[in-house]
Design goal:
The protein is built from no helices and 32 strands. By secondary structure, the protein is mainly β. The chain folds into two domains: 297 residues, Glycosyl hydrolase domain, family 43 (Tachylectin-2, Chain A), CATH 2.115.10; 87 residues, Jelly Rolls (Sandwich). Strands 1-5-4-3-2-21 form a six-stranded mixed beta sheet, with no helix packed on it. It is globular, with a radius of gyration of 21 Å. The termini are far apart. The relative contact order is 0.12. The structure holds beta-D-fructofuranose (FRU). The site of beta-D-fructofuranose (FRU) has 12 residues, from strand 2, strand 6, strand 10 and strand 14.
Amino acid sequence: MITYDSPVSLDNEYRPEFHFTPAKNWMNDPNGLLWHKGEYHLFFQHNPAGKKWGHMSWGHAVSTDLLNWTELPVAIPEGEDGAIFSGSAISDGDEIVAFYTRHTESQQTQCIARSSDNGRTFTKYENNPVLDEGKKDFRDPKVFRYRDHWIMCVAQPFDRQISFYKSFDLVNWQHLSNFGPAAAVEGIWECPDLFPLVVDGEEAWVLLVSLNPGGLYGSGTQYFVGEFDGQAFTPRYSTSEPRWLDYGKDNYAGVTFNGEPNGRRIFIGWMANWSDVKDHPDTSWTCQMTVPRLLGLTRYKDELVLTQQPICSETYEILEDIPESGTIELTGFAQVGYNADRKVIFINEYEAPYEPKGDKIHLKVLVDRSSVELFSADGVRSISLAVFPPLGMGRDLTPESHKHIVL
Ligand code: FRU
């Protein structure tokens, strides 16, 4: 459930029931994902003054369970000195420290702001910026604790690089290394994240890089599995082909929580695409987030691949014997299922290659008022889609009996 601190137009047909969307106006990237003193914080790119992108500020919502979100007033409004672009947050004792990109027409720099009231209000550091490379495009700082210091990852969008920096005091940053260009480079690189995951007692690091365009359908997110030695990130596998985080159209700029108390690595993405967000229906709010997803690694076809498990009770579950041919699917306002001939899972025309282990196909489907998300139960594939069915159309899906296609 989502609750708001201001009156809400429900825009009945499309306002999500369990995906976060602001009460009103525009939202893009998740920012500053952080667990701090009992609350999960979801800050987000927000235009408090309109339904289209502009006046970038950090909106704010909190949750104690990742399922129910309460929207709070804007946490960091656009300033005289510039707009507040994407970034991250950390706990520093009792305080939250936000790292954001200050954006002006001519320059992007990394700045900090502190909050001593659990993220409700922030005070900008008087000596901002804390990192300035004199560049027009240089953004989306992700800061995390590493041993006895801090690491910052920042995107150099047009160089298709992620730069790593180190600091002991959050204010003085020393350059360590750059990663890239690698794999998908057809668009600009944005919104990096870097974190370790453990699989079978072995640690591997995952680097997320969003790019726009150059994803499967415009904006998309690729990931690299590799090593981070405190200095540089080294991919473990060939980077001639990208690994996609998601095979749908709508999952961009996703990043993970800092400070998760149970050591879980939890991801939220923006469930939209820069290529067609302008075509979303004219509701009082624009755009929703994916549900939070628990990330992991598993071995699949000789590689470690990233897995995602939705934190949400699924709307439908498909658990069927794999047919020799044809599809197992649910139909209605969307078609969702598995195609045994093509060995893909799909939502409408969006497909992800998938070969189940064993003789069952097991899928999880999340259906909300204006989205469908599909996961293979082992988490190795996901497809996320914002969908706006014609007005008056229901959201129920019904099983289509298994269609045998005789070849
Ligand atoms: C990604 C992005 C970020 C930037 C923000 C501005 O969607 O372009 O690189 O910080 O949006 O709103």
